[in-house]
């Protein structure tokens, strides 16, 4: 008989919310079937006295939706204590975890999401998932279950190594200075011997599915204390953190990039950036991060339900983001599994773009949230026909969090201000209705058409000791450019074309890490350009002297290509851009964007009587009739030419307001357009 859940008590005067707790009954024989009781208990958000933490949170990997095992639920009534109310089907992994955690003579109280939430009740699931940050925060401790012992005994070998490393590293405070160098040699030898003898064990250990599970970010960050269990062994989080740190630092070619990503995320070594361990030890007030940065940081972590790409991080977003921002993000308090994924993603993008920029000033004096949303929407898509966006189910301006980032967004907060600002208050509308947005309407200036795209093979540039291969790749690339470009000089900035290309390929050094060669002294950039001039602009010939430039170019051009435009501009954008795409300046945004007309085949590059490039027709922006145009769009959106967002763009000589200055110099009237983006 399958257990039938009773509804949880709704919010009342006594408690703010209630949860079910799994009381795992003891058993002398480990072969005894699992028995438990499910007991409802109420909690308050704010405690007037010290709370009684009477349960442990359990973290594990759900895996495939196969439920071969049973958890028998007994009656809560004293008079019918042995009566079974039915069984709950559970996965093999959860069954193993409960077997290992069960005691012989004492009760174990747990909160386990798969059992304590009625997964078949969508309303309850919504409510309980919204409460999960509180549930893990109030738990006495959080138990991480990595799984059973493997055939190669990775649990035993790794856990013993972790404990030995912790014991060796635990030096009394007064002896740390005098013993530090001796301890360092001993630690190095211990790590080296372990990697030599147990390579397969640590590789298997790091490839356990739990380490890539998206929910762990919220669960581990919010937990009061964390214990890691694997098979019959367990360690605390600090011991685990120390091991990850030492293994990362002592890598002997054992680990892949995925292994190193796992270690880096777990223990806190990522250019000093926020990771799970660092965040666990930081105060709420000290840690501030905008929602999009949090989502991007953990975008590689996996989950079964695509809606959990957002839901699994709502608790962390709420904790880290400025209070003014989270107050405007109603969705982080409103988990709803009845909504389709595309609706969840679209609602979230809409809410972010509606946030008042003034609320971001305590964190960043110049930060364009709408720009960042649009950039990530392009970066997480496929950059071409939009099929990467959940099969085209969501608009191109909405971030598809189920994808992976194809390229890094260009610098979206340039020091000298926005790229284009034509009117005092940008008109951003979501149509056809606020409740069901599908069309983003912005004011902008479609000013040019892409005529040529040229790809650069950056693979040789990411390897060591392959300068000759990088030179060959760049030679081939520049030969293509030379065959397409006219003249030797770049008219928009009055510099040599190769100098403009060299600057464009690194996006004007905007992506230079602070600890890199070019980041150490601004003079080095001028030295590079001077040497390029003395070498008669033979860029490939100086690569061996500037490996820092090769590395920066490879980083910047990942997922991007060079383009040439009808007006003579050069720049870089996503590899998915193609001839006929439109370069556009959107009002109050910090970078240009590439848009694709809905009926692209109708449009070709042509010039008017004065030689100006004519771009696809769309209706003019007139303040006095803007509201009327919006109403017409809402009623008949298909009757107007609309665009698909393809990419952000670096356009050399058009990134810091130069475009607006030039256009105003030619005449006071700017031919602004109303641009519907679908």
UniProtKB/TrEMBL annotation:
InterPro entries: HET, HetReg/Transcr_Mod. Residues 55-219 form the Heterokaryon incompatibility domain. Signal peptide: none annotated. It comes from the Eukaryota. Pfam families: HET, Het-6_barrel. Transmembrane segments: none annotated. This is Heterokaryon incompatibility protein-domain-containing protein. The lineage of its organism: Eukaryota, Fungi, Dikarya, Ascomycota, Pezizomycotina.
């Amino acid at each position: 008989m399958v257990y039938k859940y009773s509804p949880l008590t709704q919010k009342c005067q006594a408690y703010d919310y209630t949860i079910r707790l799994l009381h795992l009954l003891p058993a002398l024989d480990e072969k005894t079937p699992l028995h438990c009781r499910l007991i409802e208990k109420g909690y308050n958000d704010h405690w007037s006295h010290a709370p009684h933490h009477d349960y442990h949170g359990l973290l594990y990997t759900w895996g495939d939706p196969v439920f071969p095992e049973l958890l028998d639920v007994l009656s809560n009534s004293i008079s019918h204590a042995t009566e079974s109310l039915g069984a709950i089907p559970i996965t093999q992994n959860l069954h193993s975890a409960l077997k290992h955690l069960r005691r012989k003579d004492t009760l174990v109280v747990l909160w386990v999401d798969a059992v304590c939430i009625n997964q078949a009740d969508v309303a309850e699931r919504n409510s309980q998932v919204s409460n999960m940050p509180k549930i893990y925060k109030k738990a006495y401790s959080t138990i991480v279950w990595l799984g059973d012992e493997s055939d190669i005994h990775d649990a035993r070998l790794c856990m013993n190594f972790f404990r030995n490393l912790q014991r060796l590293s635990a030096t009394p405070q007064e002896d740390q200075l005098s013993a530090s160098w001796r301890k360092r040699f001993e630690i190095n030898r211990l790590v080296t011997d372990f990697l030599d003898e147990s390579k397969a064990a640590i590789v298997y250990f790091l490839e356990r599915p739990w380490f890539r599970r998206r929910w762990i970010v919220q669960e581990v960050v919010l937990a009061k204390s964390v214990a890691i269990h694997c098979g019959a062994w367990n360690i605390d989080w600090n011991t685990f953190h120390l091991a990850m740190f030492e293994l990362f630092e002592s890598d002997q070619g054992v680990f892949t990039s995925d292994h190193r990503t796992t270690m880096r995320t777990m223990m806190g070594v990522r250019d000093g950036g926020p990771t799970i361990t660092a965040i666990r030890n930081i105060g709420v007030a000290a840690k501030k991060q905008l929602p999009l940065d949090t989502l991007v940081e953990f975008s590689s972590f996996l989950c079964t339900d695509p809606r959990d790409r957002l839901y699994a991080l709502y608790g962390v977003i709420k904790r880290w983001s400025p209070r003014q921002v989270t107050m405007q993000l109603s969705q982080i308090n409103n988990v709803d599994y009845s909504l389709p994924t595309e609706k969840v993603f679209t609602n979230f993008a809409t809410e972010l773009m509606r946030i008042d920029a003034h609320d971001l000033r305590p964190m960043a004096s110049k930060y364009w949230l709408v720009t960042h949303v649009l950039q990530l929407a392009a970066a997480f898509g496929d950059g071409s026909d939009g099929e990467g966006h959940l099969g085209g189910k969501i608009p191109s301006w909405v971030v598809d969090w189920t994808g992976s980032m194809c390229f890094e967004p260009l610098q979206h907060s340039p020091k000298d201000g926005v790229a284009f600002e034509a009117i005092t208050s940008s008109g951003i509308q979501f149509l056809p209705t606020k409740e069901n947005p599908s069309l983003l309407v912005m004011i902008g200036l479609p000013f040019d058409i892409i005529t040529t795209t040229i790809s650069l093979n950056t693979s040789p540039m990411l390897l060591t000791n392959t300068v000759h291969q990088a030179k060959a790749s760049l030679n081939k690339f520049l030969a293509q450019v030379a065959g397409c470009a006219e003249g030797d000089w770049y008219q928009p900035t009055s510099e040599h074309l190769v100098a403009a290309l060299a600057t464009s390929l690194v996006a004007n050094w905007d992506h230079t890490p602070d600890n890199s060669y070019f980041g150490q002294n601004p003079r080095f950039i001028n030295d590079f350009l001077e040497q390029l001039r003395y070498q008669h602009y033979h860029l490939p010939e100086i690569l061996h002297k500037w490996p820092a430039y090769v590395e920066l170019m490879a980083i910047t051009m990942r997922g991007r290509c060079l383009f040439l435009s009808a007006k003579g501009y050069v720049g870089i954008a996503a590899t998915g851009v193609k001839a006929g795409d439109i370069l556009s300046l959107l009002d109050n945004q910090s970078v240009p964007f590439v848009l694709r007309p809905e009926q692209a085949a109708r449009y070709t590059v042509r010039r008017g009587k004065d030689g100006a490039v004519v771009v696809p027709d769309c209706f003019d922006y007139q303040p006095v009739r803007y509201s009327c145009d919006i109403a017409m769009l809402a009623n008949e959106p298909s009757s107007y030419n609309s665009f698909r967002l393809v990419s952000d763009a670096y356009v050399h000589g058009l990134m810091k307001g130069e475009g607006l200055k030039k256009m105003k110099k030619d005449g006071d009237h700017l031919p602004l357009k109303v641009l519907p983006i679908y």
